[in-house]
Amino acid sequence: MVKHLDALLSDCVNGYRLTPDEATSLLKARGRDIFRIAGAADEKREIIAGDIITFVRNQNLNTTNICINRCGFCGFSRRKSDPDAYLLSKQELIDQLHRATERNVTEICSVSGLHPDYTLDSYLEIFKIIRNEAQKIHIHASNPMEVAYAGRKSLYSSHEVLTAFKEAGVDTICGTAAEILADPVRSIICPEKISTDEWIRIIREAHGIGIKSTATIMYGHCESDEDRAQHLSIIRDIQDETGGFTEFVPLSFVHQKTPIYQMGIARPGATGREDMLMTAVSRLFLDNFRNIQVSWVKYGMKMAQIGLMSGANDLGGTLYEESISREAGAVTGTYLDPGEMDNIVSDIGRTLRERHTDYSLL
Ligand code: SF4
Fold it and tell me: Which of 51, 151, 184, 253 could anchor a disulfide with 220, C-beta 3.0 to 4.6 Å?
């Protein structure tokens, strides 16, 4: 691979489209090859996205942690009877939104547990409250799993649910619930979740009616490099077809308090090598994406900075009120001040700028 590698990377930087097999071999790299791959990804980032690193001032809104599912990688969900189960009241929801407007937040990111009593109307009510209380805020909410759940509970098709979401004010949806788009792995880590085909169908439907989304991968548990490459290939194909993804976000598995780790099914998350290569190969493989994001919540600040040197151009959000990763054991914190972001950005000679959800600069 060593002799071939320089030619492959050079071709890729100059527009050659990597195959899934080539992506797999890059993900398996060891030794100095890792730095060569990261270097090529950084070059490609410079060509595609320039030197500005962006972030969005956003706030999470997790209306409930009560969930009918028990995904093995999730430390957030609770049963109704659990002592720390919660369901926000309307007033608590409004209070959170008022805090968001006071903080000049431009995006509300709302994903929650699949509450057994939720119906399509429950979701619509939440979106209407957000729209009423924070009129100018971008609503980035729900994901294909919640869309399928709302449809299942109220006997509507996913297309009808998405249309209703849009009318209620949802601007974009989250590309989460993708985890790894390989059913054999999904059957281990999230057997109750929608299948790969359903995820793809709902994302296509969303893009088809003008609701853009993010795209994500959750890696570092029990998937293979081949599974990761297959996932990237599915995402690239959808983007070719719809152009509806705003960015790709590699999400490194936070393992500490999750059932699949505690039961010995998953390994203790990805290594630094894997994090670096996942970001770099995403940049090199996803030639139809402008934006590759590093998640400081999943990586921690130092690894996030390495990601920014390995092909990424976005730091995600300030994430006021983050709780999903924290419940799984993340130690990075629940909010990142733009001043701290600037420390790691200026340290590598780049410039930090605040953006909107659609990546237009403020
Ligand atoms: S990942 Fe989502 S659907 Fe799965 S258990 Fe956690 S909250 Fe529920």
Answer: 253
The residues, any chain, with a CB within 8 Å of residue 106's CB and separated by 6 or more, are 56, 57, 58, 136, 137, 138, 356, 357, 362
The model's pLDDT over 138-187, given as tens digits with 9 standing for 90+, comes to: 999 999 999 999 999 999 999 999 999 999 999 999 999 999 999 999 99
| Residue ID of nearest Cα to ligand 1 atom 4 | 71
Which tens digit of pLDDT belongs to each residue from 77-89?
999 999 999 999 9
Question: Does residue 344 form part of some domain?
Answer: yes
User: Is residue 318 a contact partner of residue 246, using CB atoms and an 8 Å limit?
Assistant: no
Q: How many domains does the chain have?
A: 1
Evaluate if pTM is beyond 0.90.
yes
The CA 148 to ligand 1 mean position distance, Å, reads 13
- Encode pLDDT of 234-248 as tens digits: 999 999 999 999 999
The answer to whether 156 and 121 have CB atoms below 8 angstroms apart is no
* 70 in contact with ligand 1, CB cutoff 6 A: yes
288: containing domain: 2-355
Compute the distance from residue 351 Cα to the ligand 1 centre, in Å.
36
Q: Is the CB of 328 under 6 A from ligand 1?
A: no
pLDDT class for 322, splitting at 50, 70, 90?
Answer: low
Any atom of ligand 1 within 6 Å of the Cβ of 113: yes
Single-letter amino acid, residue 317:
G
Pocket flag, ligand 1, residue 72 (CB < 6 Å): no
CATH number at residue 165: 3.20.20.70
